[in-house]
Amino acid sequence: MTVAWVVLGIFLFVLLLGVYGFNRLVALRNRVDNGWSQIDVQLRRRYDLIPNLVETVKGYAAHEREVFEHVTTARATAIDASGVGDQAQAENQVTAGLRRLLAVAESYPELKANENFLALQEELTATESKIAYARQFYNDQVMRLNTQIQRFPSNIVARLFGFEPREFFDIEDPVRGPVRVDLA
Amino acid sequence: MYEQIASNKRRTFLLMGLAVLLLAAVGYAIGLWLGTGPFGLGIALAVAILLQLGAYRYGDRVVLASARAREVTPEEEPRLHNVVEGLAIAAGIPKPRVWVVPEKAPNAFATGRDPEHSHIAVTRGLLDTMNRVELEGVIGHEMSHILDRDILYGTIVATVIGAVVLLSEFFLRALWWGGFRGRRGEDQGGGAAEAIVFAIGLVLLVLAPLFGQLIQLAVSRQREYLADAQGAMLTRYPPGLISALEKIRDAPHAMRSANNATGHLWLEQPSRFPGEKTGLMERLFSTHPPIEDRIRRLREM
After folding, report:
1. What's the pLDDT band for A13 if we cut at 50, 70, 90?
2. Ordered structural domains, chain A, with CATH
3. Do residue A130 and residue B131 have CB atoms under 8 angstroms apart?
4. pLDDT tens string B270-292
């Protein structure tokens, strides 16, 4: 009789542990998804800025065609990219293209004084820092999810219900990377 | 961090209980003075509970109004809005509402109930003196207060302390100007026992604001270090906050709307006099750790 109670007790304990572990994994996975959609929103905002920026610079430096093409193709590739790794690579291209575009702008004083250009530049800086923050949040959540998936005993629950570890979003930090361009 | 949030919630409830007791005691003392006995206690309890509910629901409005803050749109202050939005993303919470306080001294505070109902207010002076990185440091600090639910605690403290100070000051003044007669004049036969109770009540009235202040202090200092550290973790760039704190330290302006009830909410304790605090009393009753200490700890990170 007592043995039956003990077995029942252990069974209930394990079940409770399983339920807790499952719920925690679901919560973490949702946070990762939420983090990814935050990144997506900001990336999209940057795609929207690029044509405007290109047009504005074109008005002053029409002959720098190669730079415009570079950033425009990079943008198109990035929009079509899918999967965390591919996206990250495409975004690095976009960042590099934008950097070149802004470097070109540096040598045109009239452009640098253009109000529209300045507003776009502030918008771009802000969006890039938001991308960086969104990436930071996303990567934190990925790390927590992945840890939970590997950790005992939740690794058993994760395997039972097919929770997969996620990929980190590794891009060059456009705002606080080693090349720090002070726009102020 | 989640333990931090849980312990903050516990502390908030504890504080609300303490404040109810304090207000009840004040009410009792007033009741004694007016000769109405336990009636005063009953009213005070009712008032205290109403006040708590009010503080929970409308405390943020009260605090913002007392600082004369005005809500600004993204078009008016694009840089500020961008920075707030960025750090809200980093913290994984909805974007707080953004306010500007018309003050020359650079400073900032956060208030509200929870991350879904939160506000960040900065002074005009802060916007004028800080560059983007420094602004990020400051907003990161405030965002941490929101994330840790410090804001609810701080806002309720501000509202309750304001009420306690107001009440006891009101009655002390009435007592002072109205003499010691009150309505007790009719039945002077109470004798020594009543005189003692009355004296205790009087002492309580005098001490209430002080108790209130001690509660306020218990909130603050440790939480500031924590928010500094956590804010730096959000921005991943401690030098931003360091240089912001240095600018605040060296700013020549005093705060016009500085008052005792809301002092603990600000990024740095608002002072009527510019310059570093040196007096013993000022140090004893300051809601914030010395700014040099905060800078030193950030440097060590």
Report:
1. very high
2. 2-161 (1.20.1440.20)
3. no
4. 765 544 444 555 555 666 777 88
Residue A126 with chain B: CB contacts under 8 Å: 78-79, 82-83, 85-86
CA dist., res. B178 & res. B245, Å (int): 48
DSSP string, B39-100: HHHHHHHHHHHHHHHHHHHHHHHHHHHHTT-EE--TTT-HHHHHHHHHHHHHHTSPPPEEEE
Instruction: Say how many CB pairs under 8 Å bridge A and B.
Output: 43
Does B7 contact A at CB distance below 8 Å? no
What ipTM score was computed for the predicted complex, to two decimals?
Answer: 0.73
Distance between CA atoms of B299 and B301, rounded to whole angstroms? 5
CB–CB of A136 and B131 under 8 A? no
Domains of chain B from N-terminus onward:
2-65+152-217 (no CATH), 68-150+220-299 (3.30.2010.10)
**Residue A30 sits at the chain B interface (C-beta within 8 Å):** no
Does pTM surpass 0.95?
A: no
- Tens digit of pLDDT for each residue in B159-176? 777 777 777 777 767 666
Is the CB of B1 inside 8 Å of chain A's CB atoms?
no
Measured CA to CA, the distance from residue A180 to residue A31 in angstroms comes to: 31
Residue type, B180: F
